[in-house]
Amino acid sequence: MSEIKKTFGIDSLYFFFETNENYDDLFLEILDQLEDLKAKFEKREIEFENRDLIISINEIQLSYLGKQEGFYWFKDSNEFFRIGFKDRYKNRGLNDIRVQLQGNGIYTVGINSIVELLKDLVKGCISDYMPVTRADLNCFVQYDLSFIKKDMFSTRKRKYSTINEIGDANSTQTIYVGKEPFKLRLYNKSLELKKSKKFEVMNEYFLNNGFDLEQTIFNIEFQMNRGHLKQFNINTIDDLFANAKSLFQSAMDDIRLLDIQSVSNERLINNKYQAETHPLWEEIKQEYDLKDFLQSALPLGRLKRKISIYDENKFEFEYISLLRKAYINNLTLDIDFLNELYFKAKESLKKTTTQKEMKKDYIEVIVIDEKTNLKENFRLLNSGELIKPLRTETVANLSDYELMVYLDKTSEKQHLSTRDNLIYTVAFNEAKKRNLLLDISSSEALK
């Protein structure tokens, strides 16, 4: 065993709750809350987006993300998890409650804590059966693996042979090996965190585990979807936890990093599979263990307080923290400026940056060609400019709410033609880019 720092875990976890006969009441309560909230906004003529619709289940508040594949998706205020609910009488090939655990929760309060919180959230409506649909088993290692190139891997099975490499001539940033339902991602975690919202969360996690933030950290991560997990008779979360070590070790054998110094150049070209496994790869494989990772847990009572309802105390804490951040960064603040922001905030309740408002900035006009008498539709902007409208919808300009409505409409037509499919794909990618969707396909989510 070397002194190279490593920590093992589960980077992503997707699963279902199996529901019982009481689920209907919960689902109808969720729909009622959404409709009541929409009615309140509409009555006061306040524009709203999905994130403004906040429901409460068992004293836990959830923000609405939108509807996709028949599921109504929500997230908690700390973004520890995302959870979707569907009508149990529709799309019966799927379970009724889908869950994705987020890194914010996994690396702060622990997987077991979030699972217990979720079980409490929907208690009385579920059984003990929790089928897993995706798990990303990983190892963070304090070692610069940028020397690795894609030809340094060997794979046991033909379907794992897809290998992509991102980087330059001197160093590798990311390597993907394989494809769903089983693939390896190896990437520079330090580099990724520089542009990640999880920067503070992950840095705290690494410091607590003895990592040096000044040195490079890489992530070795195996994504395993339902199809792959079932080959190992892993159906539930409990199955996954009990067999994670053997599952990870099998993955390290299936996709093997070679020690290219162990064979001649000629043999490396003609039959690289005879090369020995890289010592670090073998070391990580032998040491992988989730015992410490799964022991990280926060008592349910404390966890509930951590994601408590947004009230005056929480607002005061956030407001003071925001002001402190402004002063630390030498921003000029005074009472007049803060008052101006206050009135801007109030005024924003009556305005929107959605497509609806943008449509008010022009007048529809018809232009008739004197020679051909052909009519064309144009838009006369407030600036006096006359433009011809595009027939396509610019999804980037849509609000979250409008985008999800548009996505639902296009999903119904996506199979009609190639163009309809392209329109749906553009909308889907935009929604995914905004983190409005879970990265769970219908195929991997089947019972």
UniProtKB/TrEMBL annotation:
<protein>
    <submittedName>
        <fullName>Uncharacterized protein</fullName>
    </submittedName>
</protein>
